[in-house]
Amino acid sequence: MSNSGKTKTRRDSDTEDVNPKRMKISNEDDDVETENNSIVINNAVFENISEQLLLLERNLAVELEKITFRLPVEYVYSPLDYAFNIHTMYVKKYCNTAKKILFLGMNPGPWGMSQTGVPFGEIKMVRDWLKICGPVGKPAKEQPDRKVTGFECTRSEISGKRLWGLFQELCGKPEKFFEHAYIHNYCPIALMDKKGCNITPAEMKGSEIKVLHSACDKALADTIKILKVEIVIGIGAYAEKRAQLVTQSAKLPVKVLCLPHPSPRARNNKNWNEKATKKLSEFGLLELFTT
Question: pLDDT digits over 42-79, tens only?
Fold first, then answer.
């Protein structure tokens, strides 16, 4: 049995005014309701959308820390722990209002969110376009070939570069994108085997994935409610499937669509920008992002 699910991570020390370890506010039995622009959790009211989301995300990270993953999972990286500082900047800067569209990714990549704490967070896009940068801590147990060096990382995550690069091209300024949309990951942890090969939730089987799905599904439903999302666009088939299951189970009046995943490993994925732009046009959403 691997102890990776019990691995404790070392956070950065500069975490604004939010203490992530004090953010566990609900569990599966808690009541989460939305009222006007506030959320009511166990009769406590949180009016700021960004704080609501951070609370739910931190609670999810705490729940996932309880899972003991079996082999071949050897390493578990939780950016919402060691990079919570940067993630907080992302949420507070760009998620203070309701969002018509939620772009939903699967989980952190080794050179994206695992380094920056931002979904699809390719270094240069986060630093130079989103204008977010700062210190990043480390997971307590690191894979030697997948070390977390934060904004000093010299590797580029192609998926993040393509996704954020598309909206940079369409929107010009990030504020234009976030006026109507937000990018979020279904699962906030990265999983790797002994050699550092990525293990996605889509590839997992057994009791662990059932527990993971249960926690992530609930968090996604609550996120949709908080942001008053009308459309979820899964980035890839797995994210689309989870969004469909969640919205149907929770009976949420939300349309679920899908964009091809920007990973270079995906089949028939040449000219991804053109294909994604065409999809947004077919969805009738392209005009929301063009200047």
Answer: 444 456 999 999 999 999 999 999 999 999 999 999 99
Query: At 170, which helix (H) or strand (E)?
Result: helix 158-171
Q: What is the CA radius of gyration of the chain?
A: 18
CA proximity to 67, closest of 208, 216, 215: 208
pLDDT at 266: 78
- Signed CA dihedral, 163, 189, 201, 103: sign only: negative
Q: How much is the pTM?
A: 0.85
Asked if pLDDT for residue 226 goes beyond 90, the answer is yes
Mean pLDDT in the chain? 87
Tokens of 129: 């376009």
Closest CA to 8 of 85, 77, 88: 77
d(CA 127, CA 203): 31
Angle between helical axes of 207-227 and 49-65 (0-180°, round to 10): 170
Q: What's the rounded Cα separation, in Å, for the pair 215 and 229?
A: 19
Q: Any idea what DSSP says for residue 128?
A: I
Q: 162-194 in b/e burial notation, b at 16+ Cβ within 10 A?
A: bbbbbbbebbeebebbbebbbbbbbbbbbbbbe
Give whole-number Cα distances, 134 to 12, 122, 148, 231, in Å.
Answer: 10, 14, 14, 32
Average pLDDT over residues 71-90: 97
Distance CA 208, CA 264 (A): 28
Closest CA to 157 of 200, 121, 197: 121
